[in-house]
Amino acid sequence: MKNLKNYFLLDPDVIFLNHGSFGATPRPVFEAYQRWQLRLERQPVHFFIAEIAGHFADARQSLATFLRAGSSDLVFVPNATFGVNIVARSLPLGPGDEVLTTNHEYGACDNVWHFLSRKQGFYYRQQPIPLPLPGDEAIVEHLWQGVTNKTKVIFLSHITSSTAVRFPVQIICQCAREAGILTVVDGAHAPGQIPLDLTQIGADFYMGNCHKWLCAPKGAAFLHAHPAAQHIIEPLVVGWGWGADRQLTYGSDFLDYLQYLGTNDLSAYFAVADAIQFREAHQWEKVQAACRPLLQEAVDGITALTGLPGIYPNSRAFSQMAIVPLPPIADVPALKTRLYADYKVEVPLTVWQERPFIRISVQGYNTQRDIDILIKALTNLLPDFTK
């Protein structure tokens, strides 16, 4: 499979194994993004007044087809955390209510629920899911131990940021629906990394980033709401889409409340279709198939180096991003600094439940040489930092 490194704008001197944090945009997609910006600047009045509704409709339809969802059931937002804020602030939660989550969730989204729980009086309950990761049935069983008669919402990631764990969200959403519990799924790392069928998943609310694995420009994400749950949503920012005399209308309260929040650069949203086209042009299923053996080699190499067991039950439990346990490290930030300073390796080192991990992302621009340098760097540096 042809390597795609020349298509990306990344510094060629950096071993970039951190696509999961902020993504990377291919040059053709970035150029399309800039064309959208130029189009806006040439005639902003006409763009915002006469054109914008059509551009939104086209962009939503392209993304909806990719996600196997209805185009009227999703809106663009700047990032997944923004989407979590919209949903969490719309839910009528109060004293006596509980929101159930896991101990693997992204810190910024945890903060949303903690903030609102203190303000509104509901309880935010974190249910531990152990590592090494058990099978899907065991994950559901562990999670369901935290469900009580006060549980109104289940919030969890599809693929977690801290541990790169994939949760069986479709099964969880089905169980929750049968129990009358709303589901909010943080899919920040899922679109573009794994196939998605949002209709089949059946979450009440699902938010995902397009700027990560879908390779769209920064600032492109979406919030999908099940038709039966859209009435719950309130505008996070009140603008022209609210009120009896709406200046802008896109066909439903859900779209009107959230689609257009005022004058803004919307180019990243409209370039999502170009990112999808880029993937199609480069047969992305084959690109991903070439990435997985490289990631597996990195996981196996680090596991052999440290002698520590992995956290996944099998190689099918991860796609293009995985974590590997590290031995006790005296100074995790210092090790990360040395990886970059000495070897130009950009890779996150994380601490989860007081255990250090390295999280590796492999994308179409990565090569065997990248993995070899990572293993060499850890071989040379770990002895200096291990407690």
Question: In words, what does this structure look like?
Answer:
The chain has 387 residues and is an alpha/beta fold. The protein folds into two domains: 251 residues, 3-Layer(aba) Sandwich (Aspartate Aminotransferase, domain 2); 103 residues, Aspartate Aminotransferase, domain 1 (Alpha-Beta Complex), CATH 3.90.1150.10. It contains 14 helices and twelve strands. The strands form three sheets. A seven-stranded mixed β-sheet has the order 2-8-7-6-5-3-4, with helices on both faces. It has a three-stranded antiparallel β-sheet with strand order 9-12-11. Strands 1-10 form a two-stranded parallel sheet. It is globular and about 65 Å long.
CATH second-level architecture of the largest domain? 3-Layer(aba) Sandwich
Write out the CATH superfamily name of the largest domain: Type I PLP-dependent aspartate aminotransferase-like (Major domain)
Order of helices and strands: EHHHEHEHEHEHEHEEHHHHEHEEEH
Number of helices: 14
Which structural class is indicated by helix and strand composition? alpha/beta
Residue windows where pLDDT falls under 50 for at least 5 positions: none
In total, the number of strands is: 12
In whole angstroms, the N-to-C terminal distance is 41 Å
| Mean pLDDT across every amino acid position | 95
Number of discrete domains: 2
Kindly report the CATH topology of the largest domain.
Aspartate Aminotransferase, domain 2
Which strand order do you get reading across the main beta sheet? 2-8-7-6-5-3-4
Major sheet attributes? 7 strands, mixed
- Over all CA atoms, what is the radius of gyration? 21 Å
Q: Give the helix proportion (percent range).
A: 40-55%
Shape: globular
How much of the sequence lies in strands comes to 5-15%
| Name of the CATH first level of the largest domain | Alpha Beta
